[in-house]
Amino acid sequence: MFTTTGSRGLYKAPVTKALLIVPSAVALLLTVVFTQYQGLFLNNLRAVTQDYQVWRLVCGRLVCLDLKDTFCSCLLIYNFRIFERRYGSRKFASFLLGTWVLSALVDVLLAEALYHVFHLGVEVLPSGPLAPVFALFVPFYRTIPRVPVTQVLGHFSLTNKSLVYVVGLQLLTSSPLMWIVSLGGLVSGLVYHCNLLRVQSLLFVPRWVARSSSRLLQPLFSGAEPVRDSALGMGATLDIQRQQRMDQLDQQILLSQFTQMRRNRHQQGGLINWNRFFPSIRHRGRNRHPPAQPQQPAQPVQSAQLMQPAQPNPSERSPVSEEQVAMLMEMGFSRLDALEALRVSNNDLNMATNFLLQH
Fold first, then answer.
1. Both ends of the chain: CA-CA distance in Å?
2. CA–CA dist 335, 328 (Å, integer)
3. Half-sphere exposure at residue 295, Cβ-oriented, CA atoms within 13 angstroms
4. Residue 50 bridge partners (DSSP)
5. pLDDT digits 0-9 by tens, 70-116
6. What is the C-alpha to C-alpha distance for residues 214 and 14, in angstroms, rounded to an integer?
7. 349: number of CA atoms within 13 Å, CB side?
8. Cα separation, 194 vs 273, whole angstroms
9. Tens digits of per-residue pLDDT, 34-83?
10. Please, what sign has the CA dihedral across residues 246, 319, 140, 223?
11. What percentage of the chain's residues is helix, strand, coil (to nearest 5)?
């Protein structure tokens, strides 16, 4: 949606789809129909610390009671679906569960610290699963590469991650006490992402729960494979539009051929030579003709001379940038896979990231 790392839709993201549908539907019902039950979902820290209503730490952090917070959190969760595709649904759900539990403890500690140090009483915090949403900014900042998109006024650079931070800032400023929730989410996300105190071995989704949920809920929340058709370019000139159409067609052909190849080679081991299957579209027409026979005594001299130069390899024409290789390796991919992806995409970092994340 905001970033260009990954295909559109909710393909291979059932946990994300569940988080978008279920809490949003419940929040809408509580706001419009069952308004008398909103008190059960208040994130009331005073009731937790003084009245020992520990159950509010669970109910008060499940559903957003403000539709604006629901909308912003859904936008961010949809954008962060890239982590579920990369790590898998079980690991992604474990991260959400771990940060959800840790942030509850951090919220209580921050509220007590504000009361004893500054004599500020914190009673009700914003409700909903907001802390795990803020926690996802930690891997987003540390692992997703920053690709410049354009510049504003010649000095301020906009990247593929700028709009995500803008939506996060909008969510942060939606409530005066949202900074406590956001700070708790960032702290818990950093602790879980860096595996401090080995929290990843303590807070995780068991395998039997993941298997049971996959069998029961996968048919409901599984997303369809994205359609490869994309909109045509809308450049200012005909040359720009033609170039955009060529780039989109190139990417569409590469993805479709790679998907078909993966279906035909289920049990093939090792790395795949992508250059063999994905020649550049600008050189694909030349490779369609079969090579001439090596020995033809009656072949004209001009035809032989035209056949002598070998077709140059696209990877040799555009050497792979080590900086882009390092950025892909920081995202968790191996060096060989990063090299192959960059070679087949002609050093297009966005297209290379799409290949590695979707396949």
1. 19
2. 8
3. 0
4. none
5. 999 999 999 999 899 888 899 999 999 999 999 999 999 999 999 89
6. 9
7. 19
8. 34
9. 999 999 999 999 898 888 899 999 999 999 999 999 999 999 999 999 89
10. positive
11. 60, 5, 35
